[in-house]
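Lab notes, practical 5.
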Amino acid sequence: MKVACVGGGPAGLYLSILLKRQDPSHDITVHERNPEGSTYGWGVTYWRGLLDKLHEHDPESARAIQEASVTWNEGEARVRDLVTRRPSDEGFGIGRHRLLEILAARARSLGVRLEFEREITDENLPEADLLVAGDGVHSTLRARHADHFGAETKEGRNHYIWLGTSKVFDSFTFAFAETDHGWIWCYGYAFSPERSTCVVECAPETWAGLGLDEADEADGLALLEKLFADILDGHPLIGRSAGSGSAQWLNFRTLTNRTWQRDNLVLLGDAAHTTHYSIGAGTTLALEDAIALADALREQSALPQALARYERQRKSELLSIQSAARYSAQWYENLTRYIDLPPEQMFALLGQRHSPLLPYVPPQLYYRIDKAAGQLEALRRFKRWLGPKVARTVHARELSARASGARASDARASDVRK
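Output from the prediction step:
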């Protein structure tokens, strides 16, 4: 089979590796519009479950990724002058640049062609049996058939900025700073022996009140260094690397698509879906997409059936993760509901922020229920049953209200035309 992957991110590179391992006779090319090694971004996170899958599907690249990663097994939360530290599941951090370097080298060793500085347009669309759109949230290939794929984006309320620092955190660190204009917070985690990622987030009122909406990069970083001086220990915050522009404040955009396939074209990774960064799953989901697509292509001889199987499987698997990401984002958007709790309670609910039940239960009551559930299996089962039930009811009401609003809007438009 001749395969063209458009986009040289983790998803496209890993798919090319898996397909070459399945059948070395596949003719596979990965097209990337940017120069090799020019990726922006700092570190990405993943967890033991993904590492086990990588070892199962390609042990060689899995070993290289594990060796290049740093680990932690604790989380720390700082609120004002209070510090709480708790054990956590084992987490891993790796530099995005290093991850792509490992995957590119492995793909080349298997005979995959990598073409950098190659912009794919309608004029030079590759001829292939399978065309894979792994070109990100702003996918050019998806945009060519926008009506068919039915992409929808929902913009989050809070502003965030993705930064690096020379401070090497020894745990996954949350820091919440109170200002005259509201709260601002950051997530910090190491991704190498010399560097950490530091994602800063705040409400729009805080962002504007602090002047971050008008500050240039240098002034903005200086202000953030002052606000988070207690965790940075004198280390600087770093914007993008030289030549890749300045770090930008953004609003996270959650992307969904009605369908992921059209003829021989299929969406992969961020071109198909995005999940809020606060659950640290973006890279994991991209690699799991690649695994699922490769498996479907191996098990189904006909391409349409293989692509349909891939889409069904991944959409089903993503439901719980997308729900967790949605509730996690809402937790931060409603931070004042939790921030004044005693530190141990606040940190416990921070860890429960993906719960569909939490937004509908008073925080202190939820904390007591959660603590009791840790000791009583029957209560744990009830909590697991009740949370999704509440979430489905609320979601159905939201969809009904949205549909009613759309019908009312159509009726008004009809009246105007008359």
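Observations recorded by the TA: The longest strand covers residues 82-95. The CA atoms of residues 12 and 134 lie 6 Å apart.
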